[in-house]
Amino acid sequence: MPLSFAVPLKAKALPAAILLLVGVWLLITRAEVRQAYRRAALVVVPAALAFVFWLVNTLAHGISFREFDVTSHILAFLPIAACFAAPLRPIVLRLGFSASAGALGIICIEQHYIEGIDRVYGINNGLWGAIEFCMFILVLSLIGTVQALRVELRTGERLLHGVFAALGIYGALLTQSRGPLLACIPVFVALVLMQARRTGRWRQALGVLVLGIGVAAVATTTLHGEVAERFAAVSEEMSTYSEQDATGAVRERLEMWRNAGSAIAERPLGGVGLNQFGAYARGRIAEGKASTSIERYDHPHSEYLEWAVTGGLPALALLLLLFGSALWFFGKHALHRDNGVAMPACAGLAVTGMYALCGLTDNVFYRAMPHSLYFFLTLGLAVYVGRMLSHRAPSDRGY
């Protein structure tokens, strides 16, 4: 499923449809599945509230239901998550997620070194999708990295996870997307430290942190200096931004954020409507209140501002609840003594942490690919943890 979100094949809807039917059947027929949902309520309920909120927002503003299309997918992922409460083979989940990161990394390598694409973007989007694609790969790569650190797994499997994660991370580097690459660092550090606390292997954790950060520094400064140049350009663009000079990736973000602030001040409770920031910004451009450099953008390049602008402050509060409750749920169980609980919780923490941080400077939900990955994994992993808490005895193996 994660890999299918990143490919353009229409047939990818078939496995999702099958899982939807199976999930509905499990919810109707299995009491233990419904119990797992109750245990995962901190993650499930905010997602359901988000679906209802944006449905009401769309109706209240008289917006075309085409704007609600991507958001409506939450309704499908809510029952699909029940499939994670079925008796699954943990090794298939582990290797499946890691192999998806490796496959997408190979696609990036092929695009860069064979097709000659300077800033790769995957096969499901154009150049505009490079940022979301980078975040997508890093989420799966972080899950693979955590599995590679598990000393109780067989050496061969750990090596596979390490290779797949390395391919994914290198592919992400080739996208040259600053936001996700920066967000990956604190999430990586948090995951490694959590594993050190659980296992008591602090020396190993320190070695992994030094090695990981060192390799990343060498890769960005020596092998791909253009990445370092993009990071260096941030400070220069921020210091020279003005309403008269708002061209360039960073300046354009600042200009969008300034206009987003105006929209929030004008409509703090109801917002301008789902996916309507672009129309609002172009209206301000026509009035001479905004730079023409942001005319092509339909979203403000910040998920937090997106929700505040389009749904008002209540929507922003809902987004904070969506991320915050998931971080609390997964963070609490990531230190569980049973790997069957702790490992899927760590995976959920990686997903939520990356999206919460990347959402500061980019939109992470407005395309189907990243939107699907988030709700498929967070809802599914939360239900998986709920099932493990109910039925699994402590063990040294598991997801």
UniProtKB/TrEMBL annotation:
Q: Cross-referenced InterPro entries, in alphabetical order?
A: O-antigen_ligase-rel_domated (IPR007016), WaaL-like (IPR051533)
Q: Which GO terms describe its cellular component?
A: membrane
Q: Where would you find the membrane-spanning parts of this chain?
A: 12-28, 40-64, 70-88, 126-146, 180-196, 205-225, 307-330, 342-366, 372-390
Q: Name one Pfam family in it.
A: Wzy_C
- GO terms, molecular function: ligase activity
Q: Which UniProt keywords apply?
A: Ligase, Membrane, Transmembrane, Transmembrane helix
Topology relative to the membrane: Multi-pass membrane protein
Is Ion transport a UniProt keyword of this protein? Answer: no
Give all residue intervals belonging to the O-antigen ligase-related domain. 164-320
Subcellular compartments: Membrane
Signal peptide extent: none
Keyword Metal-binding, does the record have it? no
Q: What is this protein called?
A: O-antigen ligase family protein
Q: Which organism is it from?
A: Luteibacter pinisoli
